[in-house]
Amino acid sequence: MRLFTTLFCxxxxxxxxxxxxxxxxxxxxxxxxxxxxxxxxxxxxxxxxPEPYWEHRIQMCKALGMNTICIYVFWNFHERAPxxxxxxxxxxxxxxxxxxxxxxxxxxxxxGPYVCAEWEMGGLPWWLLKKExxxxxxxxxxxxxxxxxFLKRLGRELAPLQLARGGNIIMVQVENEYGAYAADKSHxxxxxxxxxxxxxxxxxxxQCDWTSTFKRNGLDDLLWTLNFGTGADIDxxxxxxxxxxxxxxxxxxxxxxxxxxxxxxxxETRSADVMVKGIGDMLDRNISFSLYMTHGGTTxxxxxxxxxxxxxxxxxxxxxxxxxxxxxHVTPKYEKLRALLQKHAKxxxxxxPAPPPVVTVPTFALDRAVSLFDTxxxxxxxxxxxxxxxxxxxxxxxxxxxxxxxxxKKGETLAIDEVHDxxxxxxxxxxxxxxxxxxxxxxxxxxxxxxxGTKLDILVEAMxxxxxxxxxxxxxxITNQVKLxxxxxxxxxVFNLPPEHAFVAAxxxxxxxxxSGPAYWVGAFDLDKVGxxxxxxxxxxxxxxxxxxxxxxxxxxxxxxxxxFLPGCWLKKGRNEVIVLDLKGPRATTLxxxxxxxxxxxxxxxxxxxxxxxxxxxxxxxxxxxxxxxKAAGGWQxxxxxxxxxxxxxxxxxxxxxxxxxxxxxxxxxxxxDGKPLPREDWRATYADSEETRSGNATADKVxxxxxxxxxxxxxxxxxxxxxxxxxxTETQATGIRILPRAEKGAPGQxxxxxxxxxxxxxxx
Length: 765
What we know:
Strands 4-5-8-9-10-11-12-13 form an eight-stranded parallel beta barrel, surrounded by four helices. By secondary structure, it is α+β, with helices and mostly antiparallel strands. Helix 5 (141-158) runs parallel beside helix 6 (185-197) and helix 8 (272-284) packs parallel to helix 9 (332-343). Helix content is 15%, strand content 31%. A hairpin with a 2-residue loop joins strand 31 and strand 32.
């Protein structure tokens, strides 16, 4: 008892003598315990890292020279059904924060509720879409009610970990890049109030946006920060913010170290030297930053999101070309950044921890199989077709079945409005067509006559809900109707095919079976020792993999990702079970584990140029809606037409540039009769005379992808004039156009003399 009393008194005395921690916003600087402090934050995402590896990745960030960890909180990861909260295992975000504190790292929390992050629906739960009239990211009462319930529950986990309460959380974000979505200060105010009501009252609250959008929703009582990518003009990015708030601390809350990969598009990389130079420029100016991503990790399971327009789903790998690669290893980019940050450190940086061991797995067979059609669950009936959410399903695949009410003739059109996101259509078990939302494939002509009563099966895979822009209202399956000619098909049986292991593991796969088409394949491999490995999926078509009950992620033969990261912490000595759902069908039914990933191998490249062989744009006789010269300045430029123009087909012709070299345009917006930007969800690039695809994805579709850091660029050797042609999807009326050059210093490739054409009929190609 005496010993206990002595220890207790010593602990109390120590706590009373400990210097209280305080993080505040000072004049032109952050203050930590009253002293100037530069935030050097490493963005990492706890669901994208196996929980046993969390501490390793935190140590990697500290050894890099960072003093803070920045995290999103993924609402849909924690509340997969209304009111069913999970903060255990890989969802134990409080444990993650405490591990960061253990290693002397502060934490910035970004609880959304919307987070983007190339994550399914930007972190919003799919079940919100069960309410047909839901208006996401607005003051919709139901939406705000659910946001409040989630944030309140999150507050129980994280509010006690604020710095002033003995934890290590120093800042909390309100919403996320809302200016790129809407202008509604009342909504941002409501989210701010819900964050505070959840208990986040003892740390600065902040909001982030782009240089072009931060003023739209800036609240007086929140700190403002900016997001931009490598190569950006640092002074130019902060100029407007410094003018608006001369005494505010400056922070780049997302400095993009690389970029994310899409299925069917070239693997993305960014220059290490350019990244390091930008961080050095910020440190020289006492500007805080968060490096997005410092370690990307893996979007395991079904959590990958998508961009739109044009619809494009994300790969499972979230390597991001980050300094710490997908498997947690040091890269040349890490070493260069660490050398810089060592120069700005007061003491030698700790050495990076050793990476987890890597093993190879010899080729093994998946020797049991069963056709997807032979193991269907009980159906649900509906007269009219409805999306996946209406059948209480969030992810995976869904099968719609009906019988043709009449005979169908060869050449008739079967139209599906709309396929979300990849569909296979069968007639009496025979494959008729595959439809891909990425390519706007929503209809096809029948290859043969079909008699009345033919069984029609439409198998649709949900590839990931849109995570950015207005398209986040992204219902899955078939969203509206199916038509044979002019006849709407009815009388459907619907089969839910969710991706949870409990569902797929119940399939009675048989030894020696070799079904064609969609099927489950089962096998196993044995290990003498465990370690990380990369499953080689190059012989497989399209689907998902589970190992020892854990969903590793999606695979698709088109690439660029051809392997799936399999963490050693999820393996065991002895037998390890593997299940593969291949919706298309494999070339061989074997797998093996490699010691390195394959992230840059394309098959059927969606990023091919938009110019067919022999095509040449002919503008002779066309009358431009606008002919002008742009200013030699960065940022958006608004150009008014002499008179309102009407049309569906838009052509932008660049006749010269501000300085010699390729042409580049980051974004364009058409302005409607009210002067506001018109929707771009249905836009499609139909022609570009030149596109740079050798060193990056600088294709014409980048001018309407809502991402200011991506751009269309011509090849270095191509000669002006240059032009791109866009199909707007519907005829529209426009009063002007906005053009944004590249964001890098000097706006490389900035157009000078331009002509804008808008017409009803297609251009001559």
